Amino acid sequence: MKHAREIVTLLIAFTAFFGDHVVFQSKLSNSKLLKALADSAVHGILGCLSALAFLSNDTNYSTQTLMYNVMFCTLISCLIDVDHIFVAKSFSLQDITNTKSRGFLHCTSLWLFVTVSLLTYSYIAKKVNIFSMTWMLILAFSSHHIRDGNRRGLWMYPFGHTPPIPKYLYIGLTMFLPHLLAVIYRVTKPTRHTVLDYSDVVTLI
Ligand SMILES: [Zn+2]
């Protein structure tokens, strides 16, 4: 589609602005359940759009490849907040929303370590599907952590937290990063035409 890249990038900015307004400033934020659901939905939509923005930089993907990648990235973007349950040690929404510390899935340095290790392994072993899947993980955690970082900074264990990311920097990064990552992916991928087939990933693992 013509201008797909520009449209998706603008949708990222719109989702971040409008989504944050709904989650934190609208009447909906009076309900803990609705606030938690809306917050998770915004993370999921941003993950979905980040994957689309990343994939819009190459026209060689099949519809199936696009769908699998976008669904995977969306799912991981939402699932990162599951760690609130581990921190709260409870399924009660009251306990989950009142946690003071952050769960391990919100540790940016841990994700960086895991994804860089996966990229290095898959590059050396020429595991193209794992290499491609890892970029979806990077898109998922980066969009989630940068958005959360607007309020709480990035958790760079063992160095502590960065200051909160200013609003416009967070939105700019969320818009720009998928395109930068797509360039890095294109120049580093082990083989020229990478098609992600999750049935292959299962057999490879
Ligand atoms: Zn989160």
Compile the SSE list and pairings.
Layout: H1 4-24, H2 32-55, H3 63-79, H4 83-88, H5 93-97, H6 108-124, H7 128-152, H8 167-188, H9 198-204
The structure holds zinc ion (ZN).
Zinc ion binds next to helix 7.
Describe the structure.
Helix 1 (4-24) packs antiparallel against helix 2, helix 2 packs antiparallel against helix 3 and helix 7 packs antiparallel against helix 8 (167-188). The model has no long low-confidence stretch (mean pLDDT 89). This protein is globular. Helices cover 70% and strands 0% of the residues. It has one domain. By secondary structure, the chain is mainly α. The longest helix is centred in the C-terminal third of the chain and has 25 residues, at 128-152. Bound molecules: zinc ion (ZN). Zinc ion binds at residues 80-81, 106, 144, 148.
